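Glycoside hydrolase family 92 protein
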Amino acid sequence: MGVGASPSTSALAAMLSLGTKVVLGAVGVASVLSPVLGVEASTSVVVATSGVTTASAAQPSASSSVFIPDAASRVNVFVGTTNGATIPHGMVKAGMDTDSPGNHAGYDADPQYHVTGFSQLHDDGTGGSIPLSNFKLFPFATCGKGNTFEECQTTMSGRKVLRKEPLTMQENPDTSHPIYRRVFAYTFPAGTTSPRIVVDITNDGQKSSTDSHMDLDEKTGRVTGGAQFAGSFGPGRYYAYTCVDFKGEGYDTGAPTEYGAWSGTYPVKNTVSSQQVFFGFVPEMGALLTFSPNSNGATSILARVGVSLISADQACANAEKEIPDFDFEKTRAASRAQWSELLGRIQVNPQDVDPEFVDLFYSSLYRTHLSPADYTGENPLWNSSEPYYDSFYCNWDTYRTLFPLMALHDPTTFARIVRGMINIQQHEGWLPECRGASVKQWIQGGSHGDPILAEFFVKYHDHANALSVPADALYNALLADAERQPPNWNLQGRQTNIWKSLGYIPQDVFERGGGNTRQVSRTVEYAFDDFTISQVAKVLGKTADGKKYAQRSQNFQNVWNENVTFPGQTDIVGFMQPRFANGQFNYTDPRHCSIHDPTSSTCFLNAQRHDGFYEGSPITYSQYVPHDTAKLIELQGGNDQFIKRLDFIFDQGYFDSTDEPSQQIPFMYHYANRPGLSTQRSRQTIAQFFNTSTNGLPGNDDSGAMGSYAAFYLAGLYPLPATRQILLSSPYFPEISFQNPILNTTTTIRSTNFNGNPANGTGGQVFVESVKIDGKPWQSNCFIEWDAFTNGSLIELQLTDNVNVTCGSGQNALPPSLSTGGYD
Ligand SMILES: *[C@@H]1O[C@H](CO)[C@@H](O)[C@H](O)[C@H]1NC(C)=O
Ligand SMILES: *[C@@H]1O[C@H](CO)[C@@H](O)[C@H](O)[C@H]1NC(C)=O
Ligand SMILES: *[C@@H]1O[C@H](CO)[C@@H](O)[C@H](O)[C@H]1NC(C)=O
Ligand SMILES: *[C@@H]1O[C@H](CO)[C@@H](O)[C@H](O)[C@H]1NC(C)=O
Ligand SMILES: *[C@@H]1O[C@H](CO)[C@@H](O)[C@H](O)[C@H]1NC(C)=O
Ligand SMILES: *[C@@H]1O[C@H](CO)[C@@H](O)[C@H](O)[C@H]1NC(C)=O
Ligand SMILES: *[C@@H]1O[C@H](CO)[C@@H](O)[C@H](O)[C@H]1NC(C)=O
Ligand SMILES: *[C@@H]1O[C@H](CO)[C@@H](O)[C@H](O)[C@H]1NC(C)=O
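Structure:
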């Protein structure tokens, strides 16, 4: 990863050209204090139709057809929320911040919210308190009536401005494509006499800084500084540092003509350190610089921003190393090339497909490559030559679909992330679960580093050595989660002692180290985590361990109460329920925490509550046993009852597209031999909840969880982590192919009689009637094997408009479940 050959520092510096993209325009009357920003960099344009043109000329014959030569051109980063310009998995995600309440990416497309600055670090659509958003830069074309240094409104509330226009089309969509916002830019209006720039050291998204400091070099204008900031979703704090350099674009600005530190609303000329101006009780501080304007009247100033979690010196070194020559174009081109190569590994044939779906696909895929972020060289906690990844926010969100998608096309990054996770386990005792800027954050459910490592190992164990992933250390890391209870299981690991003795998490046992909540959802998630460990044990030939963890993965049955019925619907029988240590159940209404909960509970993370469930209801968690759906069908009374229950969940609105535990429900009809219904429900889910508008996501993106989910649905696939099977439906494209740089294969799924996609997701010639792999009839219409990816197969689908298709008639037509023979 990274510009050039350096994987470690490429993510650490952002190049900001204060020249071309953010247009500052002083409005009419002199009494207006602030200029108005017309923020070109913030538009939601998807352009570059060249891909489509090429595509329609291409014939879908070779399995390695390139249909979208520049896949990055199909990305709209403003889908849902947004995150900032970056390279794949880059640490620096430069982006615009607004004063919108509750916008976790810093940015809000709604033009009623003010711009407060352009900051360097962001996450991708997380919950918790607004994370990161550190080190904002902000330009002033004029300051006050007298346009003096001292009149500049340096605080966030003083300087904030409305965007000049709602976000609209760009004059030059290519160079302003949001992917480049890491090199986004500003333009001072012609005739600006005192172009000024604020560097804000203290205001992160939570305004949480303490222990801040800033120094500036009056000769060069270099600003260095840092502070301690609060983590977003946990009790820890972290230090971050920055180093900002300026340069005229196409001319020499020389030394700043005015400079000074500011504290609150007081910029003090000719000071060079926060210590000269800083009052302890004023929480906002930074630098203000004035540059000489360009003699031709159009001022362009480039800013290069380095960031580090170690020191300001290292922030400078990162910037100098990554962007030595301030070359805006080169930086932009290198970042763009990286994105196009990465996204282009998945090719779709757009013929007869609504371009909206192509854009939605690549925009979703793009968001799966933001988190976790490569902080290699920036780990403040210990030194190691292993990669260091951070921004796991949280594995609970991403293990289901993000990492399985990465397994299909980006195993090299996947391997580096796995190495980083193992390294964290070796230093901290347990795998990371939820983490931001080195801070351990709250655990939502199980220890879901386990399915992530297992997903990698089950698919890539033959390549583990070549990818420098140590199998023994990987297995030891899994065992630590499974067997060792940490002192604080709210921040890492699991509540393993009681899990091992009772086989479920009881509702009435209070143990030090974590909240006595989420007992049922943790039970079903611990069970799945143990399943994934059993899968790794099997690969390693550890037969006894494989059996042991497969056995433990059946523990979900310990919280199944066969006698609980749905209120008013007595034929829906059997639910996951909280249970006491003595074995008795504590009845909980199956609607608890659903949209129809009579008590309007929410089941979010909250120490005050004692709900057995997390971000889901008994009715949705009673569907969550991905590794043994056959057993679930049996518990729920057989195929017909199971289908009836699934239909009830959708028809009554219990399916919750915003929360991950619901994600696989649309595909569950597969296991009852009704894959057409899965195709239907999954397509209705896309139609209802996903599009390329700024609100085109249900809830947050959750670090790419939603992006990867949508990408799988559009690809006509759904993964089961840590297995070699992938559920199959029909792609939205006549052909989709996955190029894998480690397996050196391209795997293609082609619908031989593709006939478009119904816009509302209902009906259409989209149901899989039969499947051939490499020319031979395949055993199932419901799943494919990982072999198809290692072999580089051509998978041909015959589609029909008959929703009543089945998985096939053979013995091995249904997708596997543990209790019907497992995953061998
Ligand atoms: C890492 O190594 C550097 C250089 O030897 C040292 O200054 C620093 O304290 C070390 N960091 C940690 C966290 O041990
Ligand atoms: C369900 O009811 C049956 C019959 O009354 C009883 O034998 C069984 O123990 C009950 N199961 C649970 C979990 O309460
Ligand atoms: C039993 O469940 C209810 C919610 O249905 C909860 O309020 C109560 O605290 C639980 N009882 C115990 C002892 O945990
Ligand atoms: C996009 O999806 C959201 C829900 O996620 C929905 O509210 C909105 O109406 C959709 N917009 C369009 C243009 O379909
Ligand atoms: C894939 O190709 C690369 C470069 O050609 C080669 O080094 C590598 O060994 C190949 N891997 C496999 C699994 O064939
Ligand atoms: C979906 O669209 C098709 C035709 O485009 C129409 O026949 C059908 O009634 C629609 N279904 C729903 C649920 O809106
Ligand atoms: C993959 O190739 C192997 C060996 O050629 C073959 O036995 C297997 O059936 C293939 N699998 C698929 C899914 O095509
Ligand atoms: C699918 O099956 C249902 C009931 O079994 C039937 O009513 C319907 O007509 C069938 N649809 C088609 C297209 O055959």
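The first strand starts at residue 13 and ends at 25.
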